[in-house]
Structure formats: C-alpha cells, structure tokens
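User: Can you help me understand a structure? I only have the sequence.
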Amino acid sequence: MAPADETEGGRPSEFALIEEVFAPLASGADGALMLKDDAALYRVEAGCETVLTVDAIVAGIHFLPDDPAESVARKLLRVNLSDLAAKGAVPKGYLLVTAWADDTAFDWIKRFAGGLADDQRRYGVSLWGGDTVKTPGPLTLSLTAIGEVPIGGMIPRSGARPGDDLYVTGTLGDAALGLEVLKGRLSGPGSEDAAYLVRRYREPEPRCSLGPRLRGLAHAALDVSDGLLADLGHICETSGVGARIEKGRLPLSVAAQRALQGDETLFPLIAGGGDDYEILFAASPEKRAGIEAAAGEASVLVTRIGRVTGPEEGVTLADGAGRAIPLKQLGYRHF
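Assistant: Let's start by predicting it. Here is the structure, written out as tokens:
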C-alpha cells in the first residue's frame, strides 16, 4: 500500500511511522527484514510445529479510551501470549495490524510502541511484520502471535476425560472487578485494592513459564478470556464431557475477597466476568504430583477446582453442600 504523502494530525506518513516507531521493535529478528519487505521469514526449529493465534481489541469494547497507551499495548500482546501458553507453546514473535483513529495522537502511538518494547524484552519475542492503516474510528488493534511446540505436543481443548481433575492458574475475577472500578460501579475497595484490580484488568499475566511445562501433563487446556464457566463449557463441548466446579475452591486474591465480603452479589463476576487470562486445564489425578512440581518450577499458583464428569451433568457450579448454584450468564458474549 502506498504511503500518504502528507502528514495528518501531527503523525508521520505511513512509511515514516513504521520506520521511526515500529522498525526498532523488529531489531534482532532476522526474518523480519527490519519491516522493509512485504513479508517475513520464519524458520521452524527441527522437530517442532508452529502454533498461531490472533486477537483483536477495540477501543470502548476491550479497553477504555483513556487507558494508558502502554497498558493497551501490553494487553494486546499478553492476551495472545496467554493463548500460546495454554497450548503449551513457547512464544517466538508476532504480527501487528494497527487501524489508527483520526484522533490518535503521535505521542500515544510512541507510548504504545514503548509498551510493546518493554514486553518484548520480558517475554523474549519481537515484531515480525504487519500493517498500519487509518480509520475514522474507533481505534482497532490486532495481533497474531507465533509460537512453537514439539511435534504432537500442543495441548488441545478437546482432550478432557471423565475423572480428570480441573485446575486453574492464578486468581479469578480480579480483571472483571477492576473494570467495575474504572467504570465507577465499584466503590468499596480501598485505594491499594482498587489499584491492584485495575492493573489486573489492564495488564493480564500470561502464564508463559507454566504452559510448556503442562505438555504431557494436561489432557486439555485453554485460557480464560470469556469467563471461567463459559470457557469450561468450551472444553466440555469439544471433549464431549461435563464438569463440576466447587465454589469454595475458586482461587481469589485478597482484593477480590474483600470486595466479596462487602458485596456478595459480585460473585457472578468471579465465575463469569472474563478477562482473567489464566490457564484452565484438565489432567488425570495420577498427574497431581507432576502438576505441583511444574507449578513450583514456574512460580505460578495452580489450584484444583473440580473434576470432569460425564456429559449428562453439563457444567455445574456447586456450593459447599454440593447444590448447584444457578447463574443467569456464564460469561462474556461477543455477539
């Protein structure tokens, strides 16, 4: 696509923007060709397969228009790295598509690139290519992450078996509660709790250190993006099984616990609010020791929250007495 000759809204033209802001993100990635070609080269390691995942985020839907540019960049990259982690893949690089709204300032774009640069160093990835265009709005960003697994090593959604244990990493509900804080609908948490919850919404923590260690241990896995119960439903549907989760086993941060103590009606956000980006996985009870060891090596909290059942039970959330807890909505719906 030919670049515009003129500079609009204080931004450089297309090619100048790529050279000044985004080409440095490709430094050190030989196959990226410093973003000076129409494609990139990728050489797969011997004995490995490529894992690809893509997610798009839109201002006003997946992030708030006044969220810091650096946080938006980190969220965009991390939600994709979370997908790779859940598949047991090691991240290698990514492709980026940016559709800049007319009112996106050049300083915002530079800070966005700075957020990507920070996370590239943290997760050992680099930019390999992409596209940049203009849109009347809203600001829309799409990222394709590329990872590797040994041949046959990817952890699918579809491998859960009746009798399997169900596990989740980290804590649940923080991001959904953080969004409530940002929207002014949750005023109970103190300043420290509020800051923690907002950070969990804006900057998820992909479990890249644990994902590859789950190969050979987990039968099925995915990352929790739409909500715990909704995403568990995806595993159950593709695996032809049911599942039973125990409410008392769900891992909660101290901030989330305090929020629930003040308002128990917030619980649906824990089970179905979404944006957790934790790994939900099923594994045989015989693998408990191996999973505990993998969690320790990765320094990631892993909690056993239930079990896989026959398909006739569906997805059930149970209280301490074993009674099913009804919920109006299991998770976030895109349409």
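Now, to help you interpret it: Residues 14-150 form a domain with the 60s Ribosomal Protein L30; Chain: A; fold (CATH 3.30.1330.10). The chain has nine helices and ten strands. Let me know which part you'd like to focus on.
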